[in-house]
Request: fold
Amino acid sequence: MSPHQDQDLTSPAAAPLPGTGNSRGKEPEHRPAGPASPTDAERPGHTEQPRRVKQPRRVKQPRHVGQPAYAEQPGHGEQPGYADRNAADYDRWFSKPGVTGATVNTLARLAGAGPVLELGIGTGRVALPLAGRGLDVHGIERSGAMIRQLRAKPGGDRIAITRGDFADVPVPVPVPGRFSLVYAAGGTFLELPDREAKQRCLAAVAARLAPGGVFAVDAHVPEALAVAAASGVPETVSATDDHLILCHRLIDPSTQTYHSHYLVHEAHRTHHFRVRFHYVSPGELDLLAEQAGLRLVRRQGGWEAAPFTRTSTYHVSVYAHI
Reply:
C-alpha cells in the first residue's frame, strides 16, 4: 500500500510498496582471481582421486500453525523501501477512518460471499475490517515489515498472505480462479512501474476471478494531478497535535510518472520520503483491462459512490470478465 491523499493508509497486496515497488538486490561482486598455483592434478605423476562430498543434512522446517502452507513466500532480492522503513508509523500517520469505512462498505457489497484478494495488503487497514464481516480474505504484500504489522493486529493471523510482487498475482493453489473480488486500494495499482507490469497484473487478475467476479481499483485522474502540482501548494495530508504531514507531487509527462514527496514533521524529528507512481488515464486503464479480457462495469468518483463527472479528481473503477 502506498500513502495517498484519499486513503487512510497504514499498506496494505502488495508491496514496494512502493517503495513497495520492484527493487532488486545487488548482484554478487566478482573479483579477479590472483595468480593460480598448480593443483595436485597438474603435477607430474599424480593421479587424481575422487573426493567424497559430504551432503548437507536436511532440516525439516516448522510450519506456522493456523496459517496456510504458502504464507509469506520470500521476495526476490528485495531491498528495504519506504514501506519497510515506515511500516510502524503508517497507521498513526495516514489513518482516515471515514475513508476506510466507505472503502470497506463498497468492497463488501462487491464481494458477495467471497473469497477476496487484495493486491498490496499492507498493514491490513482494509483487509481486516472485511475479514471481520465474515469474508475469507487473502492478500499479496512485498514488504516484510508491513506483514509483521498486520500479523500483530487482532485477527491478522487468520489472513492468508503471499509475499511477493503483486504484478504477477503470485497466489498459488488452492485459490486461483476462485475469487469473487480482487481489489487494489489507496492508489497501490499505480505503484506498478510501467504499462507492461500493469498489463501483466490485469491478465493475472482476470485468470483468478471466478465467473461473475469483479476487479476494483482506485486512482487519481492525471489531469487533476497536473493542475494541483502546477499550483505549487503542498497538500496537508494530516495535522494533529503530534505531527504535520505535507505532500508535494512532481509530475513527469515524458515518462508518465509522478513522485509524491512526503514531509513528516514531529516534535523530535523531520522526516522526508518519496514514492514513485506510474499513472494512466481512466481511458488507458479501460484499454489495458480490455486487452486482459476485462470490461468496465462501473466508474464512480470515489469510494463514497459519488458520481464520476468532468470535475472528478479521483476515480474508483470496477471491471468484470468480457
The first strand starts at residue 116 and ends at 119. The helical segments are 82-94, 97-111, 127-132, 144-151, 195-208, 222-231, 282-291. The radius of gyration is 23 Å.
